[in-house]
Every structure is written in structure tokens, then in C-alpha cells.
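Recap for those who missed Tuesday's class. We walked through two folding examples back to back. For each one, the amino acid string is listed first and its predicted C-alpha cells come directly after. Nothing is annotated here on purpose, so try labeling regions yourself before you check the end of the notes.
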Amino acid sequence: MTKKLILFLFVLCTVTVQAQLRYDTYRVGKLHLPQEQLAEDEDEIPEGRGFTFALNLGMVFPNKYTANFYNGSDKNPNKVSRILLNPYYKPYIVELIGHQYDSSDIDLPQDMAYKVAINIGFFARWSPNARNGFFLQFSYQKLQTNGIFLIHWKLDYPTNKPSYTTAYIMGEEERNCIDIGYIREWPLSSLINLYMETGLNMTNTIVLKNMIQVEGQEYSIKYDGEHPLGPYSTNYTYDFQQGGIGFGAFFGSGIRLIFSEKITVDPGITFYWKKINLEGYEQSKPDFTAMVRLTIKDPFW
């Protein structure tokens, strides 16, 4: 993910430099024009009256608050104990680790965090004039988190050596976001505009996975409505959907790099204050995205 972020920043810097070079060339060609005509040219910026559409590509830096939903604690719907304390699964796990273990002595991660993830989406704007607009934006994110926990062995003799098995836990979710907002922009030069935007956010979160891995063997701890009955069970389990819809607000800012009357590239950052609807973690928290919009004005005419 670090490599993706470096690549994203490299592309952003490259685009900015290219736009500035085009701006310098443009201004050299305009030096002979009277000031009145230069002022009139400000009204020729793309994305004036009409519709604009864009593809968004960037990175999301999610708040870690809801990541502990996946840590397997008994206070969460998905519990490590559903597997480790289950009489059907426990013999298999004891065989894997080579020791009986103490069911009450399992150290779970308490500070899980999401990985930086890709944010992709679609943007549509209607502008009544060259400086103001109203927009609707759809974004998709798939987030992952993982951690390490310890299963302590049950021994009948004291030892100074490590007496535990290191196991792994992971969670995966997807977020579908809708932003409804207002955007305002100001020209910084003939080919660069500053923009600011604000509005309301709705995020639908769906839990995809919550797994543990013990000695290479994976087990799902995602709640299915029944206690797990072992790998050979034929009992039907239900696919309960975990997650839900949360609301929030956002504020963003960036620059518009004007390549033609139809096309601009808009790098920017957006800060959110929103609720991610996962059971037990319903507080609103901040996170932010950094992205680039590739926009095209009035593509159908």
C-alpha cells in the first residue's frame, strides 16, 4: 500500500508540473493583451454553466476506531471464543498447536487499525455559473485490518521458554459512500483554480470477513446465527449481514488544473466527520481521502 501511495503522489506532482508549464506558456502568449481582455478570459474557464462528470481515484485514510470491531473480543458480535472454545473445533486446534490451551488466557489485539486503501468513484456536477456548483459523488472502498493474538498453552510444569502460539486475526469490509455537496471555486491564474466544497455524507458499510488463522488453518468467526459445529457439520448456517448506514459531513479543498475547455484534472483532499455503523462502534469519527478527479465538461455535446 505504501508503494501505491508513493505512485499516487508521483502522478499528482507530475500533473501539477505539467499544468504549470502550460500555464507559463499561456501567459507568455497573453502578455500583449490589454488588462480588460485578460479579465474577460477568466469567464472562459471550463466547467462554467452546465454539467460536468468525473472519475475519482485516490487513497482513503480511515480512522482506526471501528477496526477493533474485528479483534475477536467477547463484546463484539464476532468472537474468537466461537472457535477456540467450541467443543467441535477445539480438538483440531489442539492438534495443530500441539498443546492444550487455556481458554481464559488468550491475548487479543486492542489497537487494530485499517490499512490505507484505494478510493474509486464517480462525480457529477451541475453548475448554474462559472464559480458555483452542486454535486453528487459516489465512492467505493474496500478496507482491511489485521492483528496478532496469543493462545497460551496449559502446562502442568513451569517453564522459562515461551509457552504460547502466535495466531492471526483479520477483518475486511466494504464501504459505499454518497456525498451531496456544494462547490465554489476561485481563479488563481488562467489555468489553475482553487476550489472548496462541503456537504453531507452517507456511508453504507458491509462486513465481508472476520477470520482467524492458527498454524496456517483459517476459521471464520463471523456470526452466522448459530454456533459453529465443526468442519464436517451439515447444519445450515445463515449469512447475517453486518454493518449498516451512517451519516456525516465533509469539507474538501484542492486545485483544478485546466487542460482544455472540456478537460481538467483536480487533485484535492477531503476531510470527513462521519459515523460507520458497526455494532458497538457507533460514534462519529474523522477520516480523510486524497484523490484526483479527471473531469470532462458536457461530454454529450
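Example two. Treat it independently of the first, because the proteins are unrelated.
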Amino acid sequence: MALRTVPALLLLCSAFAHAATPLPPLRPLKIVVLLEFEQRASILFLKQLQNQLDYIFARAGLDLQWVVYDSRTAAPSADRVVIMEMRGHCNASYARQALPLPKPGAALGQTFVNDGEVLPHSIIDCDQMARVTSQLRARYPSPTMVENSYLRLAGRVLTHELMHALLRTVEHHESHFTRSPLRLDAVDAAPRLSAAEVDALKRLGRDAGGYSLAHK
């Protein structure tokens, strides 16, 4: 069985009711995002990252639950579980340092694919994100602005990989979160899912198999 990953340089059933007895609204799909940190992350970083993604996915009507995994973590109860391996120094202050240039061709995030099936398992390279952000130090007048840029970049990368893992698709599009590679000038823009992305996420649990953003 072939196991591969989808690289991202910033990189990302209709219910028929009887007319006389309409079905009650579907409850929000509960999705546990299991964060596995290679190195301990600060509570502040976790909170800032969580706030970003909660804001980005708010319109999709998903019940996102954030769990930091360790050896004592109980198996979460959820409709879906997505594993996010957070490798390296996941710390915004790390990007304030004079770091080496980003590794050529190295992805900021990647999602596993096994025999054509997209798996709910992604890897985020925090060190590569810090190298990318560190190169922007001359562009920003204060270290705080560099840290904020790193946090926004981290939010974009996690969103991109969550889109791959949740929609079970390797597709990339020209919208903000499913573009590959993500343009750095987009990091400063207000994050917003496209109407097609929101619709695709709302269909989770109803459609079988992967979901194409071109689906009508």
C-alpha cells in the first residue's frame, strides 16, 4: 500500500424529508482536532491559534474541539478526529530571530494520502514557518508584528491542511485557503472561507466520499 503526502507550501448527502413530517435540523458535526506537539507549546500560542481557526470556520457550522495530545489523553468522542502533528518550535517568538533561509522545496504543511485516499492526518512544520516569517523582519518595524505574522501564517497553514483532511480531497483552487502555494501577501488579508468552501464543509457527514469544491 503506497503512502504519500500532499505538499502545501503554505500550504487544503442531501437529506430528503417527507413533506408532511420535516426532519429536525442536523446537529453540528463534532470534529476533534488532536494536536501532537513535538516540543511543548505555550498556552498563549494554543489559544491564539484556536481563536484564529474558530473564527475562520465559524460560518461552516462545525463544532471544532481542540485537544492537545499526550500519553494521558483519553480517546476523544467525536464524529471525526483529525490528527495534526506540530513539528519543531511552535512558538511565535522563535520567528523574531535571525533564522536561516527557508529550506528549498520544503512544505509548511502536508496531509497523508494512502492509495488515493486522503487521511485525517497532517504534519505542520513550525520551523519552516518561522524561517519564512523571519525573512519578513525588515518589512515590519517591531518584533510584535513579526510574531503576529507568524501566528497568521500558522492559522492559514492549519486551515489549508484541515480542508484537505476534512473534505478528503487533494484538490487546490484559487481561493484563499485552498491555493497552493499560498501567497505571502495573503497572510495580511482578513481570513475568509469562500462560499464554495463553506458549502462543502456544511455537507460533511451527508455526502459519501471526498467532496469537490466544484460540486454542484
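Answers for example two:
The radius of gyration is 18 Å.
Confidence is low (pLDDT under 50) at residues 8-25, 208-216.
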